[in-house]
C-alpha cells in the first residue's frame, strides 16, 4: 500500500472508534440511567485514550512524510493537510492527561446536572476547578507545540486558524454596537401593536409531531438520524447516524420548535458532508463557526423570516387547534422576532444572543489565562450581564450554571457561536442573491433551493478549504461583520437608518 493509502485506512478505523464514542456520549446525555454514570465514565475514558492513541500513532509521521512525495489529487492533498494538523495537535498531549481530562469532565458533567437544578455553584466548584486545571494544562501543551497562547491553542481545536486577537476586535465592535442598538429595537417594538399571546398548554406529543414535520420540511433524513430529549439541546451521534435533541416546555412551544430547527441545521451539515471522504479528516465539518453558521442560518435567517412563518402558521394552528389573531402569520412573525433582555443564552433572540457569547468568551479567556479565580465567576458573570445586557440573574442556575460547555471540557468553544451568526448572515445573503427562488420557496415550504445551494457551497466541501477560503468562494469575500449588522438593522430596526450598521 502507498503511504497515503495507509493513512486513509488508518483514519477510517479511527473514525469507527470515534463513532462508537459519539453514540455512547449521546446515550449518556439522553437515556442512560443515573446509576450507570461511573461505569460509563470509565468506558468513555478508556475509549478516548484508545482513540488518542490511534490519532497519535508514530506511524502517522512516517506515512505523512511518504505521502508528501506522492501524486495526489486536491482532496487527498487536503486530507494530508488535515491529518498533519490533527497529528501535530494530538501528539502534544500525553495519554495520561487525555485520560485525566476525560474522567474529570465526566464527573463534572454529572455534578453540573445536580448543581444546576439546585442553583448551587459551590457544589460544582471543586469539580470545575479540576476540569479547568486540566484544560489549562492541555492548552499549554498544545500551545508550546503550535507556538500559540494557551487560549488560542484551545480555540484552535474548534476554530482551526482562529486567533483571539481577531475575535477581540470583532467582539469589541459588536459590544459597542449592540447595547445602543438593543435600546433602539426595544423602542421600535414599543410602537408596534401588542402581539396577542398564544395560550397553552401545548402538549409535548403535539410539539414533537410539529418538530418532526418541520425537520422533514427543511430536509432532514430520518433514515440517518433521530430526535430525542436532553437537558441541554445538542447535535451529536455518529457518521450517518446524526442524533439531535431538544427540551420541551408545555407553556411555550416555540422554544422547542426553534431549538429543533437550530439543531436540524447542524444535522443537515452532517448529513451533507462528502460521502467519498466521510470517514476522513478532510470530510469533516470545516470548523465550529461554519457548523454554527448552518444551525443559525436555518433557525434565524430562514425560519424566523416572514416567508417561513407564512408557510408555518397554518401548520402551527393545526398542531395545537389554535384560533384567533395570535395565530396569524404577521403576529407569529412579531412574536418570533421579539427582542427582550433575558438570562438564558439558548433562549435569547438574535439581537441579544451575541452579548451572551461575548460575556462567556471574555470570562473563559480570563479563567484560562489565570487572570481571575474560578470562585469569582458568579460575581463576574452577574457584572458582565449587567454591562452587556442590562439584567442581573437572580441565581446561578440562570447565571453561570446554565451551560454544559465548561463542565464537559469545552473551553475555547463559545466564540464560535457568534462567529457562526456572522457567517450565517453572509451565507444566506449570498445564497438569496445567487438564487432568487430561495425566499419564495421557503414561503411554500420548499427548502430544496436553499438546501441545494448549501450542499454545493458548504456541506459537500467538508474541510477541503480553510475557513476563510470557503467563505470567500461561497460569498465573494471573507467574514465581514457589516453584513451581520446590516441584517439586524433590516429585520429589527424598523424605521432606523441603514447607516447605523456601518
UniProtKB/TrEMBL annotation:
EC id: 3.4.17.19
Cofactor binding: number and manner: Binds 1 zinc ion per subunit.
InterPro entries linked to this entry: Peptidase_M32_Taq
Keywords for the protein's UniProt record, in alphabetical order: Carboxypeptidase, Hydrolase, Metal-binding, Metalloprotease, Protease, Zinc
Catalysed transformations (reactions): Release of a C-terminal amino acid with broad specificity, except for -Pro
Catalytic machinery residues: 263
Cofactor(s) recorded in Swiss-Prot or TrEMBL: Zn(2+)
GO process terms (BP): proteolysis
Binding site for Zn(2+): 262, 266, 292
Molecular-function GO term, any one: metal ion binding
Protein family: Belongs to the peptidase M32 family.
Function: Broad specificity carboxypetidase that releases amino acids sequentially from the C-terminus, including neutral, aromatic, polar and basic residues.
Record-given protein name: Metal-dependent carboxypeptidase
